[in-house]
Design brief:
Length: about 325
Amino acid sequence: MADISPGSDAVSGTTPVISVRQVSKTFGTLRAVDGVDLEVLPGEIFGLIGHNGAGKSTLFKMMLGLIAVDAGDIHIAGVPVRGRGFRAARRQVGYLPENVVLYDNLSGLETLQFFARLKRVPGAQCAPALQRVGLGGVGDKPVRAYSKGMRQRLGFAQALLGSPRVLFLDEPTSGLDPAAIRDFYATLQELRAQGVTMIITSHILAELQERVDRLAIMANGRIQAMGTVAQLREQARMPLTMLLKLRGADPAAVSRRFESLDGVRASPAPDGERLVLSVTRAQKMAAVRALAALGDEVEDIGIREPSLEDVFFGLAEEQG
């Protein structure tokens, strides 16, 4: 089995920790996953996004060995998921499912102790795991008294038992309040610094935008696009937006100065006081030079890059 501990060659990025090759899965007439290729490098936080029914959860379960692939190969830490050695490799893997199912009559601490026995992890790890997810003060309370967000954090705690080197996180922030979401991603950054590899799905794209290293967009069981947020913006060929606050100038008159620039579309904002520029990435510097020529007529400039949500829907429409 590949060594994926901090300091190993794998952490330096030479060997993918998660490798998916031409994987397919069919349920009756439904082709849930259709020839997917995917690699996740050591220490990456990798996002997997897509509409409901895109195939994300099915792909997750195949990577975890919970359901068998119909075709293709999956390796986790260098070990084939369908091979005999995967049972041992799976002890390096943590999993937080989308819907956390817990025993209501057990306390939070008892719940972790139960999972620790299943994972063959020392029970001494349970109390620190509760502290790490902010449940240290309620570990003796029954799970039935936990809110949805507390249950989600307890599910995250069980995923962290055994100090896994690979984490699969399926909609991990469901039910969490803003402070808990901030703390959750702070924990992911700590784990990343330790060389842990993570693959995460979320429907809240704004959360992922600044927090993942790379993303893959799934649709109809296939990977439609993959890369960093910047690379996906390039693939989507989406313009950026510049919003100009003018100092007494007429927006309609100023907009005419951009008519000669290909790839730049200028129009007055609805408030009648500002000018909106839609600029292709290739023409960004040309637009900046044109703005500099306006001098004191411009009081302020705001620049907005397409969000991950914009990119997602732009690529989805393109594929459609």
